[in-house]
Amino acid sequence: MEVVHEGRCHVPSAQKVRCTLALLLLSADHIVPRETLIDELWGERPPRTMITTLQTYIYQLRKSFSRLTRRRDVILTRAPGYAIRLGDDDEVDAHRFERLVEQGRRQFEQGRLAEASHSCGTALALWRGEALAGICAGHRLEGHIAHLEELRIRALELRVGADMLLGNDRDLIPELRALVAAHPLHEWFHGELIKALAGAGRRGEALHAYRVMCRTLRDELGLEPSPAYQNLQRDLLRGVDVREMPGDSPLRHVNRAGMAS
């Protein structure tokens, strides 16, 4: 995590100060109660000096922002806690990422596939590593991290799905191989790799990719592939074009996975 202003970058060195800043930024322009910050910083064992220590962290952040932006009103004291005032939600990459993914989802739903691919690609380009890397997160920040990581997968599904429907399946093969390696239990990524290989005329490799998926699911979870992917294999063996297998829209897949549309 880093704060950048006019090309100047600043990251608080103290772990708990970084944690305080992260929680304020993820709730930018909203009040974060003092109790919430204390619970995130120390959990069930806060020190007796928790109030004054938190005030010290806030003072350090104000001092840093004042040097960085020459503004003294970035971090505000507002009962029952504190708020960081930005004004533009896109100043926080996490918020811009969420907005772009939602924009891409709507565009995909409306059949605007090139725009959906661009929106989700722009969203994914904001990532430069793991979410909130370098922060020792408490349970609230861990929740934010899990949300962002799930949304990252959603963005990948939508962008890959849009590009597949635009006929870019051959170009996606290297990326899909990497996604399958990074997410070996994610059936949809396996399925898209199988379809992309088949669409490129590499039916033998597509069938091998199906066997890899079967072996992974059996070894790791004791499961067989979903019926849709078993049908995909049968169609491959029969020489059917599998690039537009019914019922496997990434939008439908995302909704079925419980990520609200």
UniProtKB/TrEMBL annotation:
<keyword id="KW-0238">DNA-binding</keyword>
<dbReference type="Pfam" id="PF00486">
    <property type="entry name" value="Trans_reg_C"/>
</dbReference>
<dbReference type="InterPro" id="IPR016032">
    <property type="entry name" value="Sig_transdc_resp-reg_C-effctor"/>
</dbReference>
<dbReference type="InterPro" id="IPR005158">
    <property type="entry name" value="BTAD"/>
</dbReference>
<dbReference type="InterPro" id="IPR001867">
    <property type="entry name" value="OmpR/PhoB-type_DNA-bd"/>
</dbReference>
<feature type="DNA-binding region" description="OmpR/PhoB-type">
    <location>
        <begin position="1"/>
        <end position="86"/>
    </location>
</feature>
<dbReference type="InterPro" id="IPR051677">
    <property type="entry name" value="AfsR-DnrI-RedD_regulator"/>
</dbReference>
<dbReference type="InterPro" id="IPR036388">
    <property type="entry name" value="WH-like_DNA-bd_sf"/>
</dbReference>
<comment type="similarity">
    <text>Belongs to the AfsR/DnrI/RedD regulatory family.</text>
</comment>
<protein>
    <submittedName>
        <fullName>Transcriptional regulator</fullName>
    </submittedName>
</protein>
<dbReference type="GO" id="GO:0003677">
    <property type="term" value="F:DNA binding"/>
</dbReference>
<dbReference type="Pfam" id="PF03704">
    <property type="entry name" value="BTAD"/>
</dbReference>
<dbReference type="GO" id="GO:0006355">
    <property type="term" value="P:regulation of DNA-templated transcription"/>
</dbReference>
<feature type="domain" description="OmpR/PhoB-type">
    <location>
        <begin position="1"/>
        <end position="86"/>
    </location>
</feature>
<dbReference type="GO" id="GO:0000160">
    <property type="term" value="P:phosphorelay signal transduction system"/>
</dbReference>
<keyword id="KW-0804">Transcription</keyword>
<dbReference type="InterPro" id="IPR011990">
    <property type="entry name" value="TPR-like_helical_dom_sf"/>
</dbReference>
<keyword id="KW-0805">Transcription regulation</keyword>
